[in-house]
Amino acid sequence: MMKFLRSQSQTVLVLVLVVIAFGFLFYGNAGNFINIGSARTSNDFGRIDGEDLTVADIYDAVREERDSIIISGGSAQLQQPGMTAQVARGAWTQLLLLHEADRLHINISPEEIVDFIRKMPMFQKNGVFDLDTYNARMKDLQVLLHVTPEEGIDPTAATKTLFENLIRDTLRTEAVQNALFDSVRSSAHDVAEEYGRLYGPTTLSYVVFDPKTYVPQLKVSEADIEAAYHNNPTNPAYRTQEKRKVDYVLFMLTPGQQKLPEDQKQAAKDALGQKALNFLLAFQPNPSADPGTPAPNLDFMTEAKKENLAPGTTAFFAPDQSPAGLPPSPAFNQAAFALSKDNALSKVVEMDNGLAVLHLDEIEPSALLPLAQVKDQIQKDLLQKDAKEAAKAGATISAKLLEAALAKGTSFIKAAASLNQKVVTVPAFVPNSAKDDPTLGTLAYQAVQLNGNQLSKPFDLPNSDSLAILHLDNRGQPDPAGLADFEKQYRQRRDQQLRALVLNDWVNWKCSKPGTTRPPPQLDAYGSVE
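The structure corresponding to this sequence follows.
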């Protein structure tokens, strides 16, 4: 088979990506066991269909799972918390599916693999499989998977072999899942119900709980203010801003250069950039010096004057203030506040009409303001916090009272009026068309989860501190013309979710059968090995 695939190397590349996609769908994520330490002493590697597994079986499954994720562009995902356990579980599922493929005598021929690869868009040019693209992808994959190049005519031979195995196993496990779970489909009732919720003309009403209405009822004591002040000394609102004083040299375009055509203006700016860079190089170690040689200990102002430049020094300024006498420049401020005592010299800083080089002169630290100066702000903050909590408590209590009233047959409007709540009624709209309006989109999201005459839980209104409780007044019949297209999209998404759930149930059922064990001890730890 290897010889055949090599002869069809144009085809093989397409197959590679298929493996990736399938590996993601059905396996989970992978890890590499090559560097497993000797501290693992357990010899229990599990059993499937009466066959004892070896450590090599576990290694191979985890490695393949991990490689599938990397090929799919998920290298960063492998570093996420909890991924080691997920990788290991995916590898165990892979082993179960492959054993089921053996039991069902499911095999993949070289011709099937080749045909599958040729159909993969990522290896095609103008709709046709391209050998050069395939070979380039193999070289990229060799680096991603840290595969040692082979000697000889084809240094990517080992990478291609790895790919072929990934593809074969993926297609086999895909065939198993199709055989076992192809009948798992969402019902016509589920499709119609979801379509009605999203596309049925909907009328709703809601009441709002605005924290500002609770402020007049609230009071903040002097003790509360003092406690907030002393317990939050790092709150920026209670402190002065840190300020900086920096030395600088500007390399600015002349007024005439600023009016030049863009290409000539850029050329002038590039010349200034070279001048600024030459100035900076004086502060760097000599490239021909021995490694570890410290940088020259030069004085910024002295060196600038020696180079016939015009250095200056700012007064103290805050991050959101422009230093006096200089053109406003966010880049200048950002560079100034990125400096430290250990890294006091900036790189070349690009400004609107020139460049600058900065040197940290002095830092004025942030300081805690006197209580009297921030007392009003603290009182305002505490009132806002208490008002939000009061609005949340009011919404929670009102929701229970409204539910009780609806259960007795009282209309939503009358129930809300009895609680002195003003009702806002939204004209009929199609929930799925409300995506561009944040408020209406939030209301639509709440509405699609409700049945007629039902009440939502309290929820936050967008761009506001307020909460709301929504009532679904009516949901009309959707336009049947769009049902067919919706059903296709819905089934693609929902059926995949259902099959994933069924696969998980199947794994649990399989592990409970005689001759098959639960995953072996320490399996999760294997997923962390790279």
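Residues 371-407 form the longest helix (37 residues).
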